[in-house]
Amino acid sequence: MTEPAGVPPALVAQLDRASDYGSEGLGFESLQARNIPPGHSDIGAELPPTPRARENMSENIPPINVEIAGAVSRFWSGGSGPSHSAITSALALAGYEESELEAEQNKHDRVHSAIRAADPATGRRIIVETTAVLATAGLLDDLTRPLASSLATALQRSGHELVAGGYIDWDVSGMRATATFDPGNRSTEPLLPDRADEINEVTIPTVQLLIDCLRRLPSAMRPLVQRQRGRPGLEIVDEYDVQDAVESMLRGLYPDVRPEERCPSYAGSSSTMDFLLKQDSLAIEVKVTKPGRTEKKIKPELLIDFEDYRTHPQVKSVIAVVYDLHSTFNNPVGFENDLTGHRNDIQTYTLVVGWPLPPSQ
Predict the structure, then answer these.
(1) Rounded CA gap, 151 and 259, in Å?
(2) 3-state secondary structure 168-188
(3) Whole-model pTM?
(4) Which residues have a Cβ under 8 Å from the Cβ of 6 and sit 6 or more positions away?
(5) What span, in angstroms and rounded, lies between the C-alpha atoms of 82 and 355?
(6) How far apart, in whole angstroms, are the C-alpha atoms of residue 172 and residue 2?
(7) Which of 28, 67, 342, 356 is the most exposed place for a label (fewest CB within 10 A)?
(8) pLDDT digits (tens, 9 = 90+) for 57-84
(9) What does the alpha-carbon distance between residue 325 and residue 361 come to, in Å, rounded to a whole number?
């Protein structure tokens, strides 16, 4: 498939793969979707690791300065701010791989050290993802608040602009000084390549794209949870609410999403998987935290689920995603690493995703 003219290849996002519990993590493939004839899938295939060092998107991107790094990380000072799980998801989406020692730091130091250690392009992505987490938590709705104002000022001094809602316009001063619009200079290149020869193919999301969509779900739900103009927002309070949100997202990606698929009887009992994507031989299990429901209780549940799903003839891979609604996880990186890998006959991917609830909840 030919790339559109002038469009760079998609960035690669890498899950947090720091070693923990004596296991080694796996790499994940590119974010780009791929075209696969119906009935074929690459889920469960061995995926190459992504190196920590990445080339900058542009040689002109300056390093992230100390002031910006400090202004972002200050939201997590003294144990405040969104959870460790939310930070883990943000760093993974940004393509930054934490070391084991980095992952064991407090929340402020995790964010600050990642921004400072990353190359400039990755550093920007970390700031984009962490500010999205802060916005989802309602911490950037009012830029006159001290922490938000400090971040806006730090970005402005470097020529960037923070707008309400947590969005960042990079290099605004440079663009205002040099950008011009020529109405006569319009490209004749098509926006999309000619796909006449691919009419019989089906576009299926990659494993990495699906993983990233699951990680971004809290941000995707934000407009519905924090509605404008005084309209009542959706309440996300338990596992059923989150499962409904996941199903909505899946139906935007896949034509065949089967909820509550039953597994064959195993050890005298049978279980029900949350979702089956039959075309990809993939099961998805969704869990949420609540007070007293920590990784120590969820881990054995997932191990049992993996064994049960292994008996299903159409399941070759499982994605287990835990949405940490109540910030009960202390070591999300270790949990992911420990439960990601090949288990008997299936490949398992485990995510812990922080879901920052707005202040009213």
Answers:
(1) 43
(2) EECCHHHHHHHCCCCCCCCCC
(3) 0.68
(4) 187, 189
(5) 8
(6) 32
(7) 342
(8) 445 788 889 999 999 999 999 999 999 9
(9) 11
